[in-house]
Amino acid sequence: MEKTIIDLETAAQALKLLGDKTRLTIIGLISEGECCVCEFVEVLQMSQPSVSQHLRKLRDAGMVKEKRKGQWIFYSLNQEHETYPIVQQILVQIPDQREKLHALEQAGLRIQCDS
After folding, report:
1. How many angstroms separate the CA atoms of 48 and 45, rounded?
2. Average pLDDT in the 81-97 region?
3. What's the N-to-C CA distance of the chain in angstroms?
4. Which of 26, 42, 60, 76 is deepest in the core (most CB within 10 A)?
């Protein structure tokens, strides 16, 4: 695999964004696939506007992508973004977040976003 070099400003911005526990949790949650805002609200126990603010910052930086399905917006990691190698390295250092999504599924809360 070819090593990607990014400029210091871009790296610093990515690390600053990921230095926030909420945004880092979001990145961990979408590392395996897409999630909608309502799922983040449940997992993070935060208001929808607050979650959307964090997602906007990640989206504006290009770290996440969004896709509309009916009235819902789903977010996923942007694996083509130049900072993705940094994200990958950080993800292997933090606890796996999939159990939180599994708990949502068990509680029947993942299906509420189906369009």
Report:
1. 9
2. 93
3. 38
4. 26
